[in-house]
């Protein structure tokens, strides 16, 4: 009987571990997502009080998207925006640089320790959004290069609309043409996975993940610095610059479309040596080379 009780307690603990991980990760992600906009508002409010030595105007219907020389608060808002952008830059850098190191360690450890489903919880929503979007275009038999080009053009149009928006309503409407902006990333990964063998796809996606994290950190630092330097004379310059830089990959994809480059849907043939390596890994998943 004592042995049966210990077995039952062990099973209960194991079942609780399974069912308590997902809610914990969901609550953690939910709290983080709520704290991001509040942190930005807190930084802006504190900088306003420190720079102007006045209380923050909570009820102000004057738009900040356009110049208003009759309003003395316009210069204050530009100065506060510049300092808030720099402070947000420093905060993001100090949080992003350690995450790059952790990402590399986790990717290396995952080959030996396995993957945890809980690590995928924060991105489930994005996966569903991208999956159904790509599936809809695939159902229409649209080429992958066209999907990527549409995603880039969607982002460019959205950034241009944001740069010329002068009211709060237009800022929200600018998100409508950007509904395809997240589509190029999974499609490009799919295209890249078809040009290499299966034995090297793990290394490919690890390099892609590390490159994306590094590019995100560098772009965040660059665009925050540019915005802080240009907000005084043209607050929309950074959005136009982002749209202009996105034209570069759009032109490259356009060239591939004109050249009619065919990314075959068939898997690339794997050499005999690599087939043996894959078979050994499947037979012995816990073996460490």
TrEMBL record:
<protein>
    <recommendedName>
        <fullName>Solute carrier family 46 member 3</fullName>
    </recommendedName>
</protein>
<feature type="transmembrane region" description="Helical">
    <location>
        <begin position="20"/>
        <end position="39"/>
    </location>
</feature>
<keyword id="KW-0472">Membrane</keyword>
<feature type="transmembrane region" description="Helical">
    <location>
        <begin position="170"/>
        <end position="191"/>
    </location>
</feature>
<feature type="transmembrane region" description="Helical">
    <location>
        <begin position="235"/>
        <end position="258"/>
    </location>
</feature>
<feature type="transmembrane region" description="Helical">
    <location>
        <begin position="89"/>
        <end position="110"/>
    </location>
</feature>
<dbReference type="GO" id="GO:0034486">
    <property type="term" value="P:vacuolar transmembrane transport"/>
</dbReference>
<dbReference type="GO" id="GO:0005765">
    <property type="term" value="C:lysosomal membrane"/>
</dbReference>
<dbReference type="GO" id="GO:0022857">
    <property type="term" value="F:transmembrane transporter activity"/>
</dbReference>
<dbReference type="InterPro" id="IPR036259">
    <property type="entry name" value="MFS_trans_sf"/>
</dbReference>
<feature type="transmembrane region" description="Helical">
    <location>
        <begin position="146"/>
        <end position="164"/>
    </location>
</feature>
<keyword id="KW-1133">Transmembrane helix</keyword>
<feature type="transmembrane region" description="Helical">
    <location>
        <begin position="116"/>
        <end position="139"/>
    </location>
</feature>
<keyword id="KW-0812">Transmembrane</keyword>
<feature type="transmembrane region" description="Helical">
    <location>
        <begin position="203"/>
        <end position="223"/>
    </location>
</feature>
């Amino acid at each position: 009987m004592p042995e049966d009780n210990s077995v039952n307690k062990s099973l209960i603990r194991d079942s609780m571990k399974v069912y308590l991980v997902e809610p914990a990760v969901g609550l953690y992600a939910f709290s983080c997502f709520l704290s991001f906009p509040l942190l930005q508002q807190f930084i802006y409010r504190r900088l306003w009080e420190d720079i102007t030595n006045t209380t923050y105007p909570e009820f102000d219907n004057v738009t900040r998207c356009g110049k208003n020389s009759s309003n003395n608060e316009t210069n204050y808002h530009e100065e506060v925006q510049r300092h808030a952008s720099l402070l947000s830059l420093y905060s993001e850098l100090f949080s992003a640089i350690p995450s790059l190191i952790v990402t590399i360690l986790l990717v290396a450890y995952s080959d030996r320790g396995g993957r945890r489903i809980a690590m995928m919880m924060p991105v489930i929503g994005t996966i569903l959004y991208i999956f159904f979007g790509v599936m809809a275009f695939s159902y229409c038999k649209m080429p992958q290069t066209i999907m990527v080009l549409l995603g880039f053009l969607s982002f460019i149009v959205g950034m241009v609309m944001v740069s010329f928006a002068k009211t709060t309503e237009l800022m929200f409407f600018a998100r409508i043409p950007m509904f395809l902006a997240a589509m190029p990333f999974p499609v490009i990964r799919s295209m890249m996975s078809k040009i290499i063998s299966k034995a090297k796809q793990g290394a490919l996606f690890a390099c892609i993940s590390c490159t994306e994290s590094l590019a995100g950190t560098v772009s965040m630092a660059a665009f925050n610095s540019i915005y802080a330097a240009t907000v005084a004379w043209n607050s929309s310059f950074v959005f136009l610059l982002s749209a202009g830089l996105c034209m570069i990959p759009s032109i490259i994809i356009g060239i591939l479309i004109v050249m009619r480059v065919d990314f075959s849907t068939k898997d690339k043939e794997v050499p005999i040596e690599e087939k043996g390596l894959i078979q050994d890994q499947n037979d012995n998943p816990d073996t460490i080379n």
